[in-house]
Design brief:
With about 375 residues, this protein is an alpha+beta fold. It folds into two domains: about 90 residues, 2-Layer Sandwich (NE0471 N-terminal domain-like); about 190 residues, Double-stranded beta-helix (4-Layer Sandwich), CATH 3.60.130. Helix content is about 25%, strand content about 30%. The protein has nine helices and 20 strands. A six-stranded mixed beta sheet has the order 7-8-18-11-20-9. Strand 2 and strand 3 form a beta hairpin. Helix 6 crosses helix 8 and helix 7 packs across helix 8. The two termini are about 20 Å apart. Its cofactor is L-ascorbate; Fe(2+). Keywords: Dioxygenase, Iron, Metal-binding, Oxidoreductase. Belongs to the gamma-BBH/TMLD family.
């Protein structure tokens, strides 16, 4: 609830009943007006452009009505009400967090010792609260397991159906992870694989990966996940200049392992938003192309930082390991969490299927579920 409101022609200052004060500009308030002429009542999309707002927009009156803010704009002579809880959610009048390489609110970084988030197949499909919590774990930690699923081929597609859609690639809607003769990708061998993010050569990169176990009687082959954001934090703390190099210059990635396919990208290994927030990791030595965008006098330092990041990622203290049993799967945020595999023997069988999906679908499903039950978001 609002306690008071004062204004100048260009700024409204409000005080909430908590004692918090906040200022809002006239142009910002007019652009974000919630009336049906400005926003579609059905979907909330804006019906005006910024060019439709008069250049001389000004506040003629601002008052508290039933705890909410009522503003009158000139020269339109237009009055709009802004709910106090909406204003509280959208305050921008505060010191912006400018820590270089920080993680976003709601992200928890981790290393070995964390209990892998896990849910049961039947419960996720039957109980909305369990599904919501499973999705929330993926959003917060970047990975989660699912147990007790069917052992039939293509069951992984039902995992993607829980929140969105499969992202089809040149590998098809899904791909097989089992030993092959003359494989097109090292994932299809029994070799161990260093922790990596998948498909860094794509732009945009697939943001989620699902791996689903159908058979696993081979010796070895444990899955390992590593929090790339925690690794980046460690590099930032140990070598700030090296962190800045990996974030400040693009690496290059390439894949051309099958006929008719030549995928290339040019993106930094550590990706930051313009205001310094950590938003992505691309790390895959197998798919790295020659780095040609780093200045000559910085190349050795760049490689030193690259090596250091790799050593952090390879540190056994960073990884959470588990062996998938038939009917079990795990999902990773491919923009953040690296996954690895220990080598396995030719005896027995190991058959996984994998597919990609998009994180925006998962976050959308989660947000809709949290809006339906607001207490779940607290």
């Amino acid at each position: 609830m609002l306690r008071s409101a004062t204004h100048t022609p260009t700024v409204v200052t409000v005080e909430f009943d908590t004692g918090t004060q906040a200022r809002f500009h006239a142009i910002w308030l007019r652009d974000n007006a919630l009336d049906p002429e400005t926003r579609s009542p059905g979907n909330g999309q804006r019906l005006i452009t910024v060019g439709d707002i008069p250049t001389d927009i000004r506040i003629d009156a601002a008052e508290v009505v039933d705890g909410d803010l009522r503003v009158t704009f000139q020269p339109e002579d237009k009055s709009v009400t802004f709910p106090s809880d909406w204003l509280a959610t959208h305050i921008y009048d505060h010191d912006q967090d400018a820590d270089f390489g920080r993680t976003a609110p709601g992200i928890t970084t981790w290393q070995r010792g964390i209990d892998a988030p896990v849910a049961h197949w039947a419960e996720v499909h039957a109980t909305p609260a369990v599904k919501r919590n499973w999705l929330a774990a993926v959003a917060e930690y970047g990975f989660a397991k699912l147990t007790g699923g069917p052992t039939e081929p293509e069951a992984l597609l039902k995992v993607a159906d829980l929140f969105g859609y499969v992202r089809e690639t040149n590998y098809g809607p899904y791909f097989e992870v089992r030993t092959e003769v003359n494989p097109t990708n090292l994932a299809y061998t029994g070799l161990g694989l260093q922790a990596h993010t998948d498909n860094p050569y794509r732009d945009p990169v697939p943001t989620l990966q699902i791996l689903y176990c159908l058979e696993n009687s081979a010796e070895g082959g444990e899955s390992i996940v590593v929090d790339g954001f925690r690794a980046a934090e460690k590099l930032r703390d140990q070598n700030p200049d090296g962190f800045a190099l990996l974030a400040g210059y693009p690496a290059r990635f390439e894949y051309k392992g099958s006929d008719g396919v030549c995928l290339r990208s040019r993106r930094p290994m550590i990706e930051l938003s313009p205001d310094g927030e950590l938003v992505g990791i691309r790390f895959n030595n197998r798919s790295s192309a020659p780095f040609v965008d780093v200045p000559f006098d910085k190349m050795e330092a760049y490689y030193a930082a690259y090596r250091q990041l790799g050593e952090i990622i390879d540190d056994p203290a960073m990884g959470v390991s588990f062996k998938l049993e038939p009917g079990e799967s795990f999902i990773v945020d491919n923009t953040r969490v690296l996954h690895a595999r220990l080598g396995y023997s030719g005896a027995g069988s190991r058959w996984l299927q994998g597919c990609y999906a998009d994180k925006d679908g998962l976050l959308s499903t989660l947000a809709a579920m949290q809006m339906a039950t607001p207490e779940a978001a607290e």
